[in-house]
Amino acid sequence: MDVDVLLSELNPGGTYELRRDGYWAVWPDLDVRAMATLMRAREVRLSTMTGTPGADGRLRLIYHWDVGAKMLNMETSVTAGHIPTISDVLPAADWVEREIRDYYGIEFDGRAATPPLMLREGDIPGLFSRTRDLGTQIDPAETARTNVASEGGETR
């Protein structure tokens, strides 16, 4: 599959660049459902998704695709804490959507349910957002170890 052709199908005239780590398309208003549907139809594999805070305070979501021997990274922005799910189109997105919800509190609209993946049932989603609001960069692994110890559990 030709990445240039794939990108022009998804967003005719959209800009993108080829970097050392693959193709990058930064489209803030990306229709993620159309993207997922096209990728599935073209048998392109979703490698993973990355959530990272942007300088403007919005969450950047990067969808990483394996297009044959080429990597395609498609970045969009989450508006108002919501973005459509793609897990019904591509079940491989299920775990990573749940992880991003746990860490950043983002809601993936259209999911039947979003059980926690990294947090415990009943924990409030948005672990990284809450630690940022405290003005500290807390290591989630260290926080988990401290919570386990304070609750009488054991770390492994």
List the topology elements.
Elements: H1 3-10, E1 17-19, E2 22-26, H2 32-41, E3 45-53, E4 59-67, E5 70-77, E6 82-84, H3 93-104, E7 107-109, H4 127-133, H5 140-150
Parallel strand pairs: 2-5, 6-7
Antiparallel strand pairs: 1-2, 3-4, 4-5
Throw out a few tags for this protein.
Beta Polymerase, domain 2, alpha/beta, 156 residues, five-stranded mixed β-sheet, two-stranded parallel sheet, 26% strand, 5 helices
Compact description:
This protein has 156 residues and is α/β, with parallel strands linked by helices. The protein has 5 helices and 7 strands. The protein has helices spanning 3-10, 32-41, 93-104, 127-133, 140-150; strands spanning 17-19, 22-26, 45-53, 59-67, 70-77, 82-84, 107-109.
Describe this structure in words.
The chain has helices at residues 3-10, 32-41, 93-104, 127-133, 140-150, and strands at residues 17-19, 22-26, 45-53, 59-67, 70-77, 82-84, 107-109. With 156 residues, it is an alpha/beta fold. It has a single domain (3-150), classed as 2-Layer Sandwich (Beta Polymerase, domain 2), CATH 3.30.460. The protein is globular and about 45 Å long. 22% of the residues are buried.
What is the helix/strand order? HEEHEEEEHEHH
- What characteristic shape results from the CA principal axes? globular
CATH homology superfamily: NADH:ubiquinone oxidoreductase Nqo5 subunit
Q: Would you tell me the overall average pLDDT?
A: 86
